[in-house]
């Protein structure tokens, strides 16, 4: 936001952003106020950091700053692995505040982890996460003019930043099918690609979203054992070197040899991993501890 707003207008922009916090779902609004109070940062700045994706996700490929690669693939026995690189131009700053967070419910002996994610300190949003039924990652989709984002922000009363939606789905959806339905049909501020992997054979999908609903859902099947998404519509031949390289590497590895280590090998391959790659992680709903053991923040 600082990049696109003239310096002299920043105080007004942060004041406006601070007012938006009252419209967010109560849980997230309380967290953002707590972050601002604990850090000493202005509330408007913290709010802006939490809706940065929704501000920037419009048709602006010529100034592309936020990328990503997400892969969902299944082994011969039906185990689903979900690989994810997050690419971002602010990596030098964010690498120092990248964390794995557990989101819990209950108190004392009744406390349990409901879902976990790779995120950033000072952020209430989540773009990479999993529970024991499915894993999720968000890739940027650049589509439509910025005025569409503004319209949807007012139409939804500022209640559905996509990073909050992913948290809501991880918290409330009990099954892969329920999550897919929720992710495909909720109104959003901004377009996106949402990649999901489940527990059972065939439970993997790329959900290509506009601001109203899913425009395309591609799923795993017996003939298609992996799906790769970067930042381009999967039904178009875009010539993106990241997706082409990832697909080539997966085919070379083969379904029989697919596991967490070989998935990470794909994520490490240039240009899938590039100068903007902030972190790489491998997830699987069947193996909740995998994400914590297979997340690397790159120097």
UniProtKB/TrEMBL annotation:
<dbReference type="Pfam" id="PF02275">
    <property type="entry name" value="CBAH"/>
</dbReference>
<feature type="domain" description="Choloylglycine hydrolase/NAAA C-terminal">
    <location>
        <begin position="68"/>
        <end position="255"/>
    </location>
</feature>
<dbReference type="InterPro" id="IPR029132">
    <property type="entry name" value="CBAH/NAAA_C"/>
</dbReference>
<keyword id="KW-0378">Hydrolase</keyword>
<protein>
    <submittedName>
        <fullName>N-acylethanolamine-hydrolyzing acid amidase</fullName>
    </submittedName>
</protein>
<dbReference type="GO" id="GO:0016810">
    <property type="term" value="F:hydrolase activity, acting on carbon-nitrogen (but not peptide) bonds"/>
</dbReference>
């Amino acid at each position: 936001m600082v990049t696109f707003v003239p310096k002299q207008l920043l105080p007004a922009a942060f004041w406006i952003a601070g007012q938006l916090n009252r419209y967010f779902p109560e849980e997230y609004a309380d967290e953002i106020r707590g972050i601002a109070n604990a850090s000493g940062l202005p509330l408007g700045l913290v709010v802006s950091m939490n809706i940065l994706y929704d501000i920037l996700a419009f048709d602006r490929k010529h100034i592309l700053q936020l990328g990503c690669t997400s892969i969902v693939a299944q082994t011969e026995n039906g185990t689903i692995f979900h690989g994810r690189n997050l690419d971002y131009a602010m990596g030098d700053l964010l690498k120092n505040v990248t964390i794995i967070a557990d989101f819990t419910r209950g108190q004392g002996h009744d406390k349990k982890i409901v879902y976990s994610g790779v995120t950033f300190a000072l952020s209430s949003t989540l773009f990479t996460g999993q529970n024991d039924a499915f894993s999720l990652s968000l890739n940027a989709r650049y589509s439509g003019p910025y005025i569409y984002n503004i319209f949807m922000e007012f139409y939804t009363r500022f209640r559905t930043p996509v990073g909050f939606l992913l948290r809501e789905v991880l918290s409330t959806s009990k099954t892969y099918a329920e999550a897919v339905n929720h992710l495909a049909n909720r109104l959003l501020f901004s377009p996106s690609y949402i990649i999901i992997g489940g527990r059972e054979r065939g439970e993997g999908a790329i959900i290509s979203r506009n601001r109203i609903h899913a425009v395309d859902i591609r799923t795993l099947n017996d003939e298609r054992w992996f799906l790769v998404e970067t930042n381009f519509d999967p039904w178009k031949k875009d010539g993106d070197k990241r997706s082409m390289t990832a697909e080539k590497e997966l085919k070379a590895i083969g379904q029989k040899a697919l596991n967490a280590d070989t998935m990470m090998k794909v994520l490490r391959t240039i240009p899938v991993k590039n100068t903007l790659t902030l972190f790489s992680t491998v997830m699987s709903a069947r193996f909740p501890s995998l994400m914590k053991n297979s997340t690397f923040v790159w120097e």
